[in-house]
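User: quick one, fold this
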Amino acid sequence: MSKLKTDVIRYSKKLNITNLSALRSGNISVRAKEKNVDGFYITPSGMKYASLKTKDIVFVTLKGRFDAKKRTNRLLSGGFIKIFM
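Assistant:
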């Protein structure tokens, strides 16, 4: 779990280094399973990749559920989850 979050951050930063994404363009996610539930880890919206920490990467189930206590202020709006799903 923690390794996947670290990988999401590492690859987000690589997007900046290689100029494939400007600072914080879009969300990065990876499919995962947490507590036997399928879903994905995703970066917060509007946060610069350079400042990401593992606590900022949140697990979202395939039904769009996530722990609101773990999210950052700029994480995900309900609308984004509906569009993304």
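User: anything notable?
Assistant: The helical segments are 2-17, 78-84.
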